[in-house]
Design brief:
Arc Repressor Mutant, subunit A; WalR-like; 6-stranded parallel β-sheet; Rossmann fold; CheY-like_superfamily; DNA-binding; 10 helices; alpha/beta; Tscrpt_reg_LuxR_C
């Protein structure tokens, strides 16, 4: 019987090693790669061709959500499982929209990860049961993708001029996106808007 080939993407070395060890003891699962960010994972896809990618959400260079979207687009036969500390319906909704087949919290029993890998490999969807119940009552995300990106970077301290240069937009356009995001969230300023959006899982 061929083993399920898994690629791990996790920026914390100790957690990455623990996940590799947990999956490595399973007789039907083989960890074929272990990387520290989404960009490295995406580059590895072309040569490793894993059956399942297990990834965190918040990572440098490319987030797990961005990775899931790219995998869905270019490697539709590969399944993605998000393993995260973010127990927020907003993150779950964005993960599912990005094409993830699984969403597990890091505080769940370790045996559930191997089970999730097997189930998504069979074409099933696996979602943390407590979080799945919450998603039906969660507020819809009001932000557009561009508003989300600009608000996230502004909330991290990036100046309007820097944003405009890197995104090839005018400063006025960047300010308009920020103003729209702030208005949608009912916040007083960009910092408060970013904090509110993060708390709901929208950034």
């Amino acid at each position: 019987m061929s083993k399920i080939k898994v690629l791990l993407a996790e920026d914390q070395g100790m957690v990455r090693g623990a996940l590799a060890a947990l999956l490595g003891i399973e007789p039907d699962i083989e960890v074929i790669g272990s990387v520290s960010n989404g960009q490295e994972a995406f580059r590895a896809m072309a040569t490793l061709r894993p059956d399942v990618v297990v990834t965190d959400i918040e990572m440098p260079e490319m987030t797990g959500l961005e990775l899931a979207a790219r995998v869905r687009e270019l490697y539709p036969d590969t399944r993605v499982v998000i393993v995260t500390t973010f127990a927020r319906p907003g993150y779950l909704r964005r993960a599912l929209d990005a094409g993830a087949s699984g969403y597990l919290l890091k505080d769940r029993p370790s045996a559930e990860l191997a089970d999730a890998v097997r189930r998504v490999h069979r074409g099933l969807r696996v979602v943390d049961p407590d979080l799945a119940a919450e998603i039906w009552n969660a507020e819809p995300d009001p932000l557009s993708d561009r508003e989300r990106e600009i608000l996230r970077r502004a909330g991290d301290g990036e100046a309007t001029a820097e944003l405009a240069r890197s995104l090839r937009l005018s400063e006025g356009t960047v300010r308009n996106y920020l103003s729209e995001a702030i208005s949608k969230l009912g916040a007083a300023n960009r910092i408060e808007a970013a904090r509110m959006a993060r708390a709901k899982g929208w950034l």
